[in-house]
């Protein structure tokens, strides 16, 4: 999504405007295209399926949906968003490097331009979430987190990369404290239940304990009645009824729970800066080093994520009732420590595989199309929202909660094909995607030339 440039712009190209075609780094565009298309695999169930959709198949290996979910979880869940965040971090460095090379030596003019850019991204995110009604919008978060990551861009790559393990530890601590808070409410509620079953009256404190658990249960563990009510709203032909189904949840995520959502993308953006400075992300390593990175990543990451998936399946902690039972007997979810490790291993392996394909010259036509998708990532991301909401929501084709899980991926493939065809055609005639053009024009506060 960020305008990308070569690490050493020439005097002829360092004007104060958007990046030109001859300045783009093809490897970064391709990696961004891969990440963007991969993200749709994670997002589409939340467009098209009812809450708690996976509980009917997560523990049933005889169901095709179980295996589709297993493959996607093991290979792609979290990895595509991580890759996208990494590339976003690279874009921060490249944007500022180009502006500073262009003569903004004090940095303040370039800083103002960058923060204006992120400010518009925040606004676009609010539109994507509250007008186009995408529950899982990331533009808002990336705009805010980008403003934070900006201040770390000059650090040495080793220090930038340390952010990943530090944030993994921090998030584990925070999530454990959050988990234990909910668990304490559950255990206190069970104790009160024992008092009720014994026929003794409840004190005011015990009545408050019941109330606290019921409120937590309502917020974090929606029951069937709540799920059915949400589905009814999502299938309404009235736009405002559909909006009411998730707008409060979106707003809570953007405000009340924002502090919890900052750290992971921030660490990944900083990692992206480090990988750029090390030359990994731009394809400057030797083929041998990329092969080593890929083999280590898959060799360690796949067993870890497979074990984690099996562990969740064996204890049935992926469904609501199973998780509540698990919570009653486990004070700490140690299995969560596997996630950040296997994810980084696999995202590095995936990126290495793509870069090796680029270096080999194989499937060049496909790679060029992926680069075009990545160059138009902003437009293509919002296109995902528009297509999926019109297919699934009640004011569109009203297919919400109508499809099997595996059937969603027919639509995913159709959207991939559409964007792999349209993006290169568009870029033959225009310099930017339509939303990229709007974003750049607003950033520079000047209408940018659109046609080639």
What fraction, in percent, of the residue positions are helical? over 70%
Shape, principal axes of CA atoms: globular
Tell me the series of helices and strands, N- to C-terminal: HHHHHHHHHHHHHHHHHH
Task: Sketch the major β-sheet.
Answer: none
Q: Could you tell me the strand content as a percent range?
A: under 5%
Average pLDDT rating: 91
Question: How many structural domains does the protein architecture include?
Answer: 1
| Alpha-beta content class | mainly alpha
Please give the number of β-strands.
0
Unreliably modeled segments: 1-15
Tally of individual helices: 18
Distance between the termini: 20 Å
Architecture overview:
By secondary structure, this protein is mainly α. The protein has one domain. Helices cover 71% and strands 0% of the residues. The chain has 18 helices and no strands. The protein has helices at 26-48, 64-75, 79-101, 108-130, 139-149, 157-197, 204-220, 224-234, 239-254, 258-261, 263-278, 287-315, 320-329, 338-360, 364-375, 377-392, 408-429, 434-444. Helix 1 runs parallel beside helix 16 (377-392) and helix 5 packs across helix 11 (263-278). The longest helix has 41 residues, at 157-197. It is globular, with a radius of gyration of 23 Å. Residues 1-15 have low confidence and may be disordered. Keywords: Membrane, Transmembrane, Transmembrane helix. The chain crosses the membrane at residues 30-47, 67-95, 159-179, 257-278, 290-313, 344-366, 378-396, 408-427. InterPro entries: Bact_Transport_Assoc (IPR052529), DUF418 (IPR007349).
